[in-house]
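Revision sheet: structure tokens.
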Amino acid sequence: MDPWRYSTEGISVALRVTPRGGRDDIDGIGTLANGRTVVKVRVRAIADGGEANRAVTELLAKALRVPKAKVRILSGTTSRLKQIAVDGDPKALGDILRGLTAGKPEKKD
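Predicted:
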């Protein structure tokens, strides 16, 4: 099952973020201990003063080819597990995400 949901405004994506991950990248899809799937993301920024959150929204905006203003954190601002909303064409955004996470092996945490 995909870790994102479609809505009329765009998509909502479940993320697991690794701050100070050495690079800004999307690592693929992972499965949490509770069976929930998430998109695994790493950023160079530290989790201090919102720097990692800013890096995550910028990474997703760039990867999904949308303006930064179209990406917002719905929940999890102080957690590694975040729910992100991306406004735009839901089908196009889902297709891009599928392409970014395809071919990367699913990992269990």
